[in-house]
Structure formats: C-alpha cells, structure tokens
Amino acid sequence: MSGQNPLKKMMNNIPVPQQKLKEVLRVEGLTKVFDKSSQPIQALRQVDLTLYEGEMVAIMGTSGSGKSTLLHMLSAIDAPTSGKMFVFGEQRDVHLEPQATIFRRNHIGFVFQSFELLEDLNVMDNIAMPLILKGLTNKEIEILVKEALDQVGMKKWRTHLPTELSGGQQQRVAIARALIAKPSILLADEPTGALDFNTTNDILHLLVQLNKELQQTMVIVTHDAYVATFADRVLFFHDGQIVDVYTNKKDESDLEEILEKFKYIARGEQ
Amino acid sequence: MQRVKQAQQGDEAAFLSLLNKEQDKLYRMIFAYVQNESDAIEVYQQVIIVAFEKIVQLKEPLYFSTWLMRIAINQSITYVKKRDRERAVSPESLHLIEADYRPIEEQLDLWQALQFLPNHYKTALLLRFYHDYTVPQIAEVIELPIGTVKTHIRRGLKMLRQHLKGVYNDEWAKSAEKDDE
Ligand SMILES: Nc1ncnc2c1ncn2[C@@H]1O[C@H](COP(=O)(O)OP(=O)(O)OP(=O)(O)O)[C@@H](O)[C@H]1O
Ligand SMILES: [Mg+2]
Asked: Is residue A1 part of a domain?
C-alpha cells in the first residue's frame, strides 16, 4: 500500500502529547543599568527568558544590544540591577558572593570568543582546572579529562601549550574545559567569532554533537546567521530586549528566514 | 547501527536518539490498544524502561525497530488485560472509563471497527497498513509463521469490513483485501 490509506490517516490523526520540557534556568524582569558614567546605560530591559533542558538557543542582535550582558547575568559573572532568577524552577539569589562562585561552579560552563586558556598550562591541565577547583581527586580528574579529550578530539595534543595550537584547537580545549564539570548550561559568547569559515563549521558541528549526545543545554551568542541555523531557538535582541523569537522546525534549518529576520532587526525596525 | 551498540553498553543518550525517530509511531500504536492519553503515556514510559533494560539482549541491531515494536505491542496488550480485569472486579469504576479521544467524524467508524477486532487481527492490520511492514517483517514482530500472518491480515480485513458495512471506508478494506491476496 502506498500513500495514505484510511487506517494510516486515522492513526496519524491521533495527537501525540508533547513531552513536557524541563526548565533549567529562568529569568524574569531582568534589568541591567550601567550607571558608572554620567550617562546611565540600560543594557537589559525587563528580559523574561526560560531555558529548557537539552535545547540549543542562539542569540543574535546588533552590537551593544545586551547579548553579552545577558550571559554575564545568567552566569553570575555580574549582577543585574533588578529581576529574578530561577534555577531548576526555584528562585535563587545567585548574584552575591559566595553563592555566585558556587553557582558558577555547579551550573555554568562558559566559552569565550578569545578562548581564555591559561597560557602556562598544557591542554590537559587547562581542561582539568574546574575539577581541581572543585576538589576532585587526581584519579577522578584523570578519568574525566581523558573522556573530555576524546569528546573534543584533542587527545593527541594533550601535553601541548595553548600557544602551540590553532584557534580552532584552542576553542576545542575551551569547550572541553567548559563541559568537564558537567554544567547545567553552557554559555558561549561568540565562540566562532575569531575563527575562519571552515573552523567555524568544525566547532559548530562539535557543539551540535555535544548538545545531542549529552543533552547539553546551550546558549550561543553569535553574529553569524549560519551558526544560528543550528539552534532549536533563535532569540533576537535589540536595545536590551528580546524583540523576536524564531523556532527552528525539526530537522530543517531555514537560513533564509533567519537571515531575513536578522537584516530586519539590524535595521532597527520592530 | 552504531547507536544500538552504544545503547547496549548503557549509553542513555544513544538510546534516546534511537527512540527519537520512532516515538510518534510507537505512541500511536500503543494508543490504538489503550485508547486514552494517560494510559498511553504510562505504557509508553514502561516500554522505554523495558526496552532500555533489555536492549543488551538484542542480537541483531538491524532489528531494533521491530524489536521495539514487539515490546510496545506486548506491553499494551498486557496493560489493557490488566486494566479490564481490575475494572471487572470493581464495577463502580466502570463509569470512569476515559474516552478522551474521539476521532473526527469520517474516521470514527473505522476507529470503532478496529476496536472490535481481537488483538491479533488488530496488530496485524496496524503493522501492515499503518507501519507499512511487509508480511515477513510482521511475522518477525509477532513471532509467528508467515502463513499465519497472512491469515490474520485476511481475516482481520474481513472482520473490519463486516463492521464497516455500508460505510465509505469499506471500499478501502475491500481493495486492501484484494491487494494482499
Ligand atoms: N561594564 C560596562 N560598563 C558600562 N557599560 C557597559 C558595560 N558592559 C556593557 N556596557 C554597555 O551595555 C550595552 C550592552 O552591551 P553588551 O556588551 O551586552 O552588547 P552585545 O550585544 O554583547 O554587543 P556586541 O555584539 O558588540 O558584543 C552597550 O551599550 C555597552 O556599551
Ligand atoms: Mg557581546
């Protein structure tokens, strides 16, 4: 039988309940004002956002629209002026020390555009750093680092120094370091911003693969619409607010549509 | 099929990604037996747990889909039997039988007719006409000889037609019966 016989048609009409998504991080009314200078800057204006387990979210938007500021608030690198934050559904004050450090250690992995590896340490030691800070035993660290090296394909380079590596390789190491402590969420601020097209592609595929295999929740800030096509959800920022959300259809990324939206946001229209 | 091997070594993520492709069809198959959403979700979850526990026993990775389907069918039928038994001993719960699903009008007759069939006919028809399995594949899922599968399909269609008498879907059942001869 080809096509849709009545039995098949009937069966396909049975609604499949959507799996309830589990929220990892949620912010409500997140606001950030930088008021050190004479002219205060509203970097975030009442941002509401929920990040769900296993999803890959891309954030796009014009320069100065507040993308990095948002990541800094989400990771408790910096404190918001006002707003609430919920961790696995529970409201938490994570922006004051010592909670901030504990929160970052337990929940956050961060990847920077400029890699930010420690120059004097070799690849293995860089990756091990979060575990050392957590106080794991050498044996435990060894096992986990080995696994992480495999995951990012850097086993061969484990005793090299960062200066002996290409940009893409350094970013692989940085990703391994960000993921080694199994964070609830990985935040990446323009992780491919310093890389050429082919290397960007490699890093992206690595991130997508880790997102799928580890069900790793990720937020990636990017200027590159191509990067955004890999995300489940794309948020568009403008002037400290989310002005548009685009949800990727399953299995088909629509570059055209994202590019279109990005152009329209870049022009500052709403 | 690498994924099956990984899942057999206890890799949960690999197992989940295997399931990903199958989940809607699997859920609807279960639903065809249990006929309401909350039971279907419960059975679906059981199926996943059982499958993950037993995947080490799967010898041929290529048979993952049919193997999973067999678990789903068996779990569904067992569940319905148990549910019906429980209802039989506590008649006060009879009125609680949830009928939270009602197919659209033109499919209602077929849905009801399907529910009248004994489970082995229902299974054969669903595998053949919903999942597009071949007769040998069905034989594999239900672990019966090919000849028996053919009989189940033929008798199932015939019974379906009897229930559909005079309704438009009858046309399809009649032609399907011819196709399968
Ligand atoms: N530490 C700071 N002190 C004062 N102003 C700041 C500070 N950090 C950010 N800002 C201001 O806040 C606004 C948002 O900056 P942010 O870095 O979040 O933008 P962005 O979207 O990441 O931009 P880009 O795409 O250029 O990285 C900008 O106007 C910026 O000048
Ligand atoms: Mg920035």
From this structure: no
Q: Residue B180: how many CA atoms within 13 Å on its side-chain side?
A: 27
Residue A108 domain boundaries: 6-15+23-267
* Residues A213-226 pLDDT 10s: 888 999 999 988 88
Q: Is the CB of A236 under 6 A from ligand 1?
A: no
What tens digit of pLDDT does each residue of A58-110 get? Answer: 999 999 999 999 999 999 999 999 999 999 988 999 999 999 999 999 999 99
The ligand minimizing its distance to the Cα of A64 is 1
What is the ipTM score, two decimals?
Answer: 0.87
* CATH number of the domain bearing residue A251: 3.40.50.300
CB contact under 8 A, B107 and A12: no
Cα–Cα distance for residue pair A186/A208, rounded to 1 Å: 12
In this prediction the pTM is 0.61
Q: In total, how many domains does chain A have? A: 1
- Give the type of residue at B89: V
Q: What is the DSSP code string of A191-227?
A: TTTTS-HHHHHHHHHHHHHHHHHS--EEEEE-S-HHH
Q: Which amino acid is at B139?
A: A
C-alpha span between A184 and B138 (Å, rounded): 43
A54 CB under 6 A from ligand 1?
no
**Residue A267 pLDDT grade (very low, low, confident, very high; cuts 50, 70, 90):** very low
Q: What whole-number distance in Å separates Cα of residue A13 and Cα of residue A250?
A: 19
Domains of chain B: 2-86 (1.10.1740.10), 100-180 (1.10.10.10)
Helix (H) or strand (E) holding A111: strand A108-111
* Contacts with A, B 30-69, CB within 8 Å: 31-32, 37, 41
CA of A256 to the centre of ligand 1 (A): 28
What is the residue whose two structure tokens read 């053919």? B150
